[in-house]
Automatic annotation (TrEMBL):
UniProt-listed SUPFAM superfamilies: ATPase domain of HSP90 chaperone/DNA topoisomerase II/histidine kinase
Name of the protein this chain belongs to: SMHD1 protein
Classification via Gene3D superfamilies: Histidine kinase-like ATPase, C-terminal domain (3.30.565.10)
InterPro entries given in the database record: HATPase_C_sf, SMCHD1
Length: 209
């Protein structure tokens, strides 16, 4: 790597956790991406790219695209799909100190790219590990445990009460990824964790599945 013998450096995960003798076996596993940096908070000079590999749950093949919930209730599915996307923002901003900002934009100007639905919030943001976990189909935020890092750490499901901006829209159990692929052909998530200078981007498409 061309490191001088008198030069200090650190090795970190993409979440900027420094690899040490104590946590080596926990953090360094097959397929993990590591950074070799001069310091933990060093700015990256170039964007890095990381491929996410996972085995989809069998429900991906059995239930994806069928939307049994919508059919059994006889409801228009679009509001429920949008509600799932908004629910991610509600959870992400639930612990904000100050204003909670959630914007929904419908983009139809094809000179700027393909038509899209954009949900933008000022929540806590997700690390690369949390984005990876979100990508695992049918792995809900209520069942992520053990080796999985929750996409909303410390999230507590509200008591059954009339729906409000502080309650849990995804109580209906549709799932954010299923909602995304009902509305469109691909998903692009861009997130900056509040405690980090790094911006993480995840791209999923129906073709990839």
């Amino acid at each position: 790597f061309g490191i001088a013998s008198d030069e200090n450096f650190v090795i970190t995960t993409t979440n900027r956790k420094e690899i040490t003798e104590d946590n080596f076996s926990e953090l360094v596993q097959d397929g993990v991406t590591l950074y070799l940096l001069q310091s933990v908070d060093q700015m990256l000079l170039l964007a890095t790219k990381e491929r996410i590999d996972f085995l989809p749950h069998y429900d991906t093949l059995v239930k994806s695209g069928m939307y049994e919930y919508y059919a059994s209730e006889g409801q228009n599915p679009l509001p429920f799909a949008l509600a799932e996307l908004i629910d991610n923002s509600l959870s992400a901003t639930s612990r904000n100190i100050g204003i909670r900002s959630i914007q929904i934009k419908l983009l139809f100007d094809e000179s700027q790219g393909k038509p899209a639905v954009a949900v933008i919030d000022n929540g806590s943001g997700m690390t690369s590990k949390q984005l990876n976990n979100w990508a695992v189909y049918r792995l809900s935020k209520f069942t992520r445990q053990g080796d999985f890092e929750s996409d909303h750490s410390g999230y507590v499901r509200p008591l059954p009460v009339p729906r409000s901006l502080n309650s849990d829209i995804s109580y209906f159990g549709v799932g954010g990824k299923q909602a995304v692929f009902f509305v469109g052909q691909s998903a692009r998530m861009i997130s900056k964790p509040a405690a980090s200078q790094d911006v993480h981007e995840l791209v999923l498409s129906k073709e990839d599945f």
